[in-house]
Structures are given as C-alpha cells and as structure tokens.
Amino acid sequence: MSLPRLSVIIPNYNHAHYLPRSLTAIVQQSVQPMEILVLDDGSSDDSVEVIESFVKNHPVIRLHRNEKNLGIIANVDLGLNLARGDYLAFAAADDEVAPGFFEKSLTLLAKHPEAALSCTIGEYRETASGLSWHMGYGVTDQPAYLSPARMVECERRGRFYIPPNSVIFKKSALFEVGRFRPELKFACDWFAMYVAGFRYGICFVPEPLAVFHVQPDSYYQRHRRDKVAYQKVIYDLLDLLNSSKFRDAGEFIREGGSLYLFGWPMLRAILSEPRYRRYLNPLFLRKNLWHITRLQLKKITPAFLGNWYLGVTGYRARPAVPAESVLPPKPQS
User: Fold this and answer.
1) Cα separation of 41 and 201, whole Å?
2) Residue 25 DSSP symbol
3) Interval 218-237: pLDDT, tens
C-alpha cells in the first residue's frame, strides 16, 4: 500500500533542552515523513546548534530560521506555507511520539482518504503536579474511521476527544476551515480539528502513541490566566460556529456537547448571549459541570491520589513511551 506524503512541522522557541528527545523520536519512526520542517522562532539559546547537528545526520530535516520572533501561530502558519506534503503533523519541540505513530496513522488514512485527520490516544504528563493520564481512551477498540454521526455517538458516551498532539491533518481539509485562525489563539487547533472532523470524519488509532508534556508556562496556560482575553476567544469561537460557513459542523458540535471542554468561560458565554443558547442542551450542561468540578478538584488533590483515581476510572490505556525516554530536569540557569 502506498502511504500518503507527510510533512512534519516543528515550531521551536528556546527548547534546545527538549529538542533531542522530540527529534530522535521522529527520525526513529518506522515510516519516515517526506520532510521534517523545524522552524526556529528567533531562539536565544543553542536551539539552532542542536537542530543543525540533527540536519547533518538526517537530510530529511530542514531548518528555517526566523530573523525575529513571530509567535507560535505565525510560526506554524509559515510552516504551512513551506510544507509540501498532502498530510501534516505538528510536533511540539517539548513533546514526543511513540514508535509506530506515523506508520499506524498513515496506514489508516490511506484506507480512508475521506477523513479530515487521524489521531490516537494522547498521553498527558503534567510536569508541575506529576499527574499522568490518557485522553481518547475508550473511543474505539480497533483502528477505525469515525463518521461525523459516529463521533457524536462517542461524545454522548462521554469518551470522545481529539488529542491535538496526536493529530495528522489532511492538508486540504485544514486549509478549507481556514488553517489555524490567529484570533482563536489557544483554541485555534481545537476549532480546526473539530470543524474539519465533524465535516469529513476522522481516523482513530486506539493506542497511546503521542505524549504531551504539560508545562506550567505553555502557550495555553499563559493565555488561560488572562481571563478577559480567554473570554473573548470563547465569543469569537462561538460566532464562527454560528456563521453560515461553519454552521454544518457547529450542529454536530452542539449535538455532542463538545464545547464542554472550555469549562466555565464557555458556560458563561452561552448563558449570557441569546444567540449562543442553541448550544445549551442537557448533554452539554452535564458534561460541562462535571468538567468544571474535576478541574477544581484537580487543584487540591495530591498527585498520588489523582493518579490512582485516573487509573481506576479508566483514564489509563496501555503504556505509551517508556519512562526512560523522559529527559532529566532542565538545568537551572
């Protein structure tokens, strides 16, 4: 079987310490992409030297250096312009993928070219608290294509999730929904994944093949602390889903209560504006309130107790990346 042409896009800014882990996991994949684009966004550490050392041994890697810092979304957008593949994977410089990630994802996409994207179970490791859990566990038992209607069924069961760090996009589907919209900031990937997915369906590999290291100073966490800016993103997201251009996907998102993930800011927005009330249904309300409760409990629960709870409640699949792959703590400057 001929596999799709894949471009891997890695935005980087001052992540020299983590790059060896991320790049090694990619170049050791059983199926290689046609290109690995590493876009350095004006790093002040030795990121460029680390990347160049990999370029010498792996010609598939291409380094692009920005003269000045553009920011994460603009840097990724530049990668989209440079990428030549029909499918796109976005790898954070401080995350990693497990063996078989490309092979299993691309094999399933080759069988289902109608799909907008593929994803796998995602493993989340919170560096500050020590919590570790899996997202997407229980969606399917076998690798499968999920139609939009089946995605809604999974949402109703309370297990559906698209882990962004495990996504491989069909390029044409991503471009159709407007790529990564800068006005949506931390929610730009969610919007692209869910709108494209609920239009064309997705492929799902039920294995934990991608690890997301949740850093306390990540792009998402920084924007989450700005409550005013966060709320504006929620309003912009809802306006897009209500627009004629995206209302088709918005209806599936409404039926499945998928907006619950945005917690209290989403509930506040839906309650405050009549034009958003269509998203207020019993399924959304139940999932949203339980999600808000879990987020509050997470703040006060010790890591050992939280990890035990996550294990017994089904938020753990088979082991993903071996523990020895984790880098030692970053040296203090």
Assistant:
1) 33
2) H
3) 666 666 677 888 999 999 99
Round to whole Å and give the CA distance between 212 and 159: 19
DSSP-assigned states of every residue in 213-253: EE-TTSHHHHHHT-HHHHHHHHHHHHHHHHSTTTHHHHHHH
**What would the two tokens of residue 287 be?**
């999932």
Tokens, residue 14:
């001052």
Do residues 169 and 86 touch, judged by C-beta distance below 8 A? no
Task: Report how far apart, in Å, the C-alpha atoms of 185 and of each of 11, 277, 287, 322 are.
Answer: 15, 23, 24, 32
Name 295's Cβ contacts closer than 8 Å, sequence gap at least 6.
Answer: 263
pLDDT digits (tens, 9 = 90+) for 251-308: 999 999 999 999 999 999 999 999 999 999 999 999 999 999 988 887 888 888 888 8
The structure's pTM equals: 0.91
Counting beta carbons within 10 angstroms of the beta carbon of residue 246, is it exposed (0 to 12), middle (13 to 18) or buried (19 or more)?
Answer: buried
